[in-house]
Amino acid sequence: MKQIMLHGANDWRIDDIDEPTPGPRDALVRIAACGICGTDVSYIHMGMTPGHPIPMGHEMAGVVEWLGSEVTGVSVGDRVVVCPSDAGQGPMGTGGPQGGLTPVLYVPDAANGKRLFKVPEGLALTTAALAEPLAVGMQSVNQSEAKPGDKVAVFGCGPIGLFAIATLADRGVTDVVAIDFSHARLDLAKQLGASHVLDPSEVDVWAELKRIHGEVPFMFGPTAATDVFIEASGADSVIGDVLQNGRVDGCLVIVALHYRPVSTNYVNLLMKQFTVRGSMEYPERFEDAIELLERRDLSAVISHKLSLEEFGEGLAVLEGSKDCGKVMITMEGAE
C-alpha cells in the first residue's frame, strides 16, 4: 500500500507500507481525498525528526471500510471525515504514526468517538475533506469573539483566511475586509463573504481601512475603527503593523504560523490595551465545520485535484503560485 512519507529535510517519498492490522477499538477508512496543507510544505523543508520517517496528510475524508467490535456511532460504508487531532494516539499527519495521504488509513482507538464524523448526504467527499482547514479558520473566529456589527480585517486569503471569512459570513458578520496580493484569492474572498478587498501592492491598507471602517481617536492621531484583525498571512510585518495602527481595545488573532521571531513595539499593545490571541486547531465541536460545509458551498476553495502520484506537482503549485487555493489529492474513484 502506498503512503507519502517524510524521511528528512526535502526528502519525501511514496513508500510501500504494510497493510494495517486493526484491533477491536480501531477502524480502517478508505481515503477519497486528502488536502495538502501549507504546514506540510513547512514540515518537508524542516524535515521533522531525522531518521524517523513520518507519514503525511491530515485533511482527509473517506469511507469506513472496517470497524472493530467496540467502535460505535458509525458503520461500515459510512462516509466520514477523519479528525487528525491528538486523541491519545498521537496526531495524524503531523508527527504521529498515521497519515492520510494513503489509500487506506488505519484509525487507532476510533472507539473513543473523537476521530470519525459522518458526512451528510449530498456533500461530496472531496469537499468534506475541507473540514479540517475550515475548522482551523473557524477557531480563529471563535478566538476573536467577532459578532454581527463588528468591523473585521483578515490578512491573508489562503484557505485558512478564506475559511475565516466564510465563518464570519455564516455568523452574520458582514463588514469584513480581505487583504491579499492575489486577485484570484480576493475574488474568492468576495464570493465567500468579504465586503471589501484590498491588494497591498495597489493601495495603502491602513488608509483604506480608515476609509472603510471609519476612524477612532487616539492620543497620537486617529486610527482605523476596525474591531478585529485575523492574521492568516504569515507575513512578518503584519503583527507589528496591527499593533501600531489598530484601535484602542482592538483584538488581534494569530492563526498563521510565524516560524521566525517577530519584533514589535509592545508599548502599542500596552497603551491601546490591545488583546492578542493565538488560535490553534479546532472548535470544541469538530462537527461545526462539517455542518458549515453542508450549509454553504465552499468547494470553490479547491483549485487543484491531483492523484497521489502527483503529490510533488501539488507541492510545486503551493510553493510557486500565489493564486492557488486548496490543492486536493484524490484517490481513484473519489467523488
From TrEMBL:
Keywords, alphabetical: Metal-binding, Oxidoreductase, Zinc
Molecular function as annotated in GO: oxidoreductase activity; zinc ion binding
Domain Enoyl reductase (ER): 8-329
InterPro entries: ADH-like_C, ADH-like_N, ADH_Zn_CS, ER, GroES-like_sf, NAD(P)-bd_dom_sf
Pfam families from the UniProt entry: ADH_N, ADH_zinc_N
Cofactor: Zn(2+)
Homology family: Belongs to the zinc-containing alcohol dehydrogenase family.
Name of the protein this chain belongs to: Unannotated protein
Organism of provenance: freshwater metagenome
Lineage of the species this protein comes from: unclassified sequences, metagenomes, ecological metagenomes
